[in-house]
Amino acid sequence: MKIGIDIRPLQTNQRFRGIGRYCYNMLRSLKDLDVKNEYFLFYGKGLGVPVKIIEEFDGNNFKIKPFLIPTGRHIEQFYFKDKIRIPLEVIRWHLDIFYVFDWPFPLVKLPKSKKYLVTMYGINPYPLDINAVKDFTSKLLDREKYSFKKRLKTFLSDYNHNLYLKHLKKYVHYVSHFIVSSENSKNDLAKKFNVPLNNITVVYEGIAQEVFKPIDDEVKKNIIKNKFSIKTPYILFVSAIDWKKNIINMFKAFKIASESFEIPHQLVLAGSYFKSSLQPSMQFILFNEILKELTIYDKVIFSGYISDEELVFLYNFAHTYILPSFYEGFPLTALEAMACGTTVISSNTSSMPEILKEVCLYFNPMDIDSMAKAMIQACNDSISEKYRIGEGFKLVKNYTWENSARNVMNIFSKLRT
User: Fold this and answer.
1) pTM across the whole model
2) How far lies 179's CA from each of 197, 203, 218, 232, in Å?
């Protein structure tokens, strides 16, 4: 069987987010497990040649090819040129299945003998109307006295988000089968886009447990603390920036926990999207202004870009990991933190209770007091902390990339029968 896979998430900023990590780990596991099927990994020439990916994956039954039609950096080029780009590769290489991670969707139907498989990393449960998202976010930010209306377009990626949702709703029926990361996402996809349940399979993501594991190294701990100016125990959040991450409510809850109950912790936000460079992003400027208003500016740290090794150390040395999101298709970072022996507190929405079980402390992400109480409890209850850490180690063993890849291989086989 010949299987084409779109690896462009590894060439864009998505490589720093969950989609990119999903793509990379799935490819690595498929290469380790599957020696029978023939894989064609397609990259976009306009996005630069992925040298490291070619070195790692090209060989044996894996072949790396550029899309014949170059890929630009603007999202509309992804969508509209893919109308001919993907079907062309299916015909050109006689592919049986074309597999993509999250998007793009086919804009034309493939022949009946050809199958189009899509992993939907998460299904946004909120209204398709971007104005509803704007109103929601504006209320959340409470920034009427600032003229951020135009600049919020950058923060929300209005155009890209709206284009994506319209595209999804219009062409969803061209997809042969969907893979989602949780039962919650399966239900959201079925309800929101009228996809039959038998066309959706849940495949839980994995944790790279050889990477994310406990580390006891005082020298490394001091290096990390010095690099990021960490002076006290800290609460960690690893993320990109978008409205569903609920970052502003997290700031407000942290203020309550810090001042009303005097927890000594700092709050560390890690990720390449949290930058303090010579040309800071609008998000970074906005967050700093809010932190100054809340008078907790000196207690919050933005790490900027971190390496994979630094990420593991930050998980390990954190006192608590927080996941404040309104919505997550799969709470990968929370499981990574558990694998490193760190207590997790999480919002009680979407996939979190399904995946994290009873191992973490939950809060209502819309209720700032609820979030603050979870922070306080996690930072002060050492007895529960030891129990939750032990249960976290047990839980993460259920999530491996090997299992995920085997389930995807089973879907490949079923699509060809």
Assistant:
1) 0.87
2) 11, 6, 42, 42
